[in-house]
Amino acid sequence: MGEHGNGDPRESGAVINAGDGESGQYAIDDPGLPPHRPRLADEDEKTAKRSERQVAVLFLVSIIGTVIFFIGYFVVGHTADLHEVRLQNTLLGVGVAFAMLGIGLGVVHWAKTLMPDHELVEARKPLRTEDQRQEAEQIVGDVLEESGIKRRPLIRNTLIGAAVLAPLPAVVLFRDLDLSEDFGPERMRHTIWDEGVRLVRDPTGTPVRAADLTVGSAMHIVPETLLDITDHGEKLAEKAKSVVLLIRMDPEEIQTVSEGREDWTYEGIIAASKVCTHVGCPVALYERHTHHLLCPCHQSTFDAANEFEVIFGPAGRPLPQLPIAVDDEGFLVARSDFTEPVGPSYWERGNA
């Protein structure tokens, strides 16, 4: 055994502990921050100017990308020619890519070559007095001064131009989602559902007999009048508002029936809008044992047994229910349109 005692490495001196509470010594001392190594741009003004021009070029690339997007959006692709449509899609994609990439790479290159790169450690200070506020303002001023944005107008001006233009493609795209003159709350209130309109399967258009539905079944439904619309754009718009999920459950499992809704279902068959009241995603997942409907986008969950009330997730109101009945031939029909606007909640909904 000798001087190593019982062979325990902790007692043999072969292993140094990470810390020793008595001696205060550590196996690895705090090395601190490494010495600062200046960059070429820190010591050579020509290199700094070259870096400045490179950053400005990247910001100009962003501006050119935005211009390419607008050329593709407003100039190209207004005919049915397939080649022109492909060219438009290419210009839109390339334009947005260069607009975002140019401004992103420009900021990164600016930070790496021209902004101060000294590392420092500073203890966190609680905010206390007006002096502290003024100190914070001074820090912000120092940051602006150190960034060189005041001393380098070429970078500043190209950055401003790129930052102003870069968001415009998104603004144009969102604005152009719907240019209809009647867009507004009233438009979302009404669908093509009406009294006597048959419920048909989507996409076959087959009418649905109440006797053919078994307990636990669920299917996607559209109004029969949708089949008569010939304009493709109008058809899609109407379908987006009027699509319905039809469910059959045991009538005894329907727990909530509000006053005035006593005749909205038929022998446990119940229908509701598929458009989630959060942001409009299609509610399509039905769990027959719990009677829960799940929106796959943000997990809003609705209870079909309790008039489709929200039981989980960000949705702010229940799914609108479609009143249904059975006609003389045994087919399911609507009693009326939805009694409230379908789709997401929005600030104007109360005016609809």
TrEMBL record:
The chain crosses the membrane at residues 55-76, 91-111. It comes from Nesterenkonia halobia. Keywords: 2Fe-2S, Cell membrane, Disulfide bond, Electron transport, Iron, Iron-sulfur, Membrane, Metal-binding, Oxidoreductase, Respiratory chain, Transmembrane, Transmembrane helix, Transport. Residues 1-11 have a biased composition (Basic and acidic residues). This is Cytochrome bc1 complex Rieske iron-sulfur subunit. Belongs to the Rieske iron-sulfur protein family. Residues 241-333 form the Rieske domain. It is a multi-pass membrane protein. It is found in: Cell membrane. The keyword Iron applies. SUPFAM superfamilies: ISP domain. Iron-sulfur subunit of the cytochrome bc1 complex, an essential component of the respiratory electron transport chain required for ATP synthesis. The bc1 complex catalyzes the oxidation of menaquinol and the reduction of cytochrome c in the respiratory chain. The bc1 complex operates through a Q-cycle mechanism that couples electron transfer to generation of the proton gradient that drives ATP synthesis. Pfam families: QcrA_N (PF19297), Rieske (PF00355).
